[in-house]
Amino acid sequence: MHDAADAPANAAEPVLRLDALTLAFGGVKALSGVGFDVAPGSITAVIGPNGAGKTSLFNTVSGFYRPTAGRVLFEGRDITHLPAPKRAALGLARSFQNIALFRGMTVLDNIKLGRHAHLKSNVFDALFYLGRARREEAELRREVEERIIDFLEIDHIRHAPVAALPYGLRKRVEMARALAMQPKVLMLDEPVAGMNREETEDMARFILDARREWGITVLMVEHDMGMVMDLSDHVVVLNFGQVIAQGAPAAVQADPEVNRAYLGGGDVGELRRRLRAQPLAQPA
């Protein structure tokens, strides 16, 4: 369970607001009127059965898809028509369900790439390594090496090529690259998919600590329901591209609509047993 002291103030304006998002591919609607708020400093989880529209939602929020209707508001600003790089520069960073690292590059170089959206030196500065480029490089190395690498406990692999790393460490490197973007909202697409319990508990601890240390807001899609129920302040449930329930984890867990979406029946007790199966140990 997360520390109640870390929970966001309910009165705060949302850092991210999704307003009636609709996304259609031809005659098929991937999203239909999806709307919810993400409070600053919160951990908000989006869950739902396979094919519910979770990845389509993430791609729409991060700018890879343009919605057919509706709006994406970031800190009160309408960013619906901004391209993905400009959203990243504003403070929206994301990881991917399928790891999107440069396998032939080292861990350190992959992480440093995350800062490119904030660099201000021009091509001439960079080509001749002039003052601004040199200062930015020094600041970047200090931030990455002294904070992010140490924070994620990957100092021992900083110079290793990504291709040589086991899956769990590659997921950690991808999170490090997202943190290097200095995000206000960190979007995590199935951050513990394919991990064992020890790796899952480590990642849960890193997510909680990132919020605590940097004040980052987290929006995640995740299938590990033990992790979702233990970490989240707010849970949004999608089914067939629509929001069928949202609220505190306990309220969502007890919602009959959620039960029907997952089980196709009315046994709420069975849903609760499935959601709480192999509960996540409390992170240190």
Secondary-structure blueprint:
Blueprint: E1 16-25, E2 28-38, E3 43-47, H1 54-62, E4 69-74, E5 77-78, H2 84-90, E6 92-94, H3 107-113, H4 123-128, H5 131-151, H6 167-180, E7 185-189, H7 197-214, E8 217-221, H8 225-231, E9 234-239, E10 242-247, H9 249-253, H10 256-263, H11 268-275
Parallel strand pairs: 3-8, 3-9, 6-7, 7-8
Antiparallel strand pairs: 1-2, 1-4, 4-5, 9-10
Helix pairs in contact: 3-6
Q: Any overview of this molecule?
A:
The protein is of the alpha/beta class. It folds into two domains: 176 residues, P-loop containing nucleotide triphosphate hydrolases (Rossmann fold); 91 residues, Rossmann fold, CATH 3.40.50. The strands form two sheets. A six-stranded mixed beta sheet has the order 6-7-8-3-9-10, with helices on both faces. The longest helix has 21 residues. The N terminus is likely disordered.
Put the structure in a nutshell.
With about 280 residues, this protein is an alpha/beta fold.
Rg (CA only): 19 Å
Under CATH, the homologous superfamily of the largest domain reads P-loop containing nucleotide triphosphate hydrolases
CATH T-level fold name of the largest domain: Rossmann fold
Main beta sheet, described? Answer: 6 strands, mixed
CATH top-level class of the largest domain: Alpha Beta
List keywords for this structure.
disordered N terminus; 2 domains; alpha/beta; four-stranded antiparallel β-sheet; Rossmann fold; 284 residues
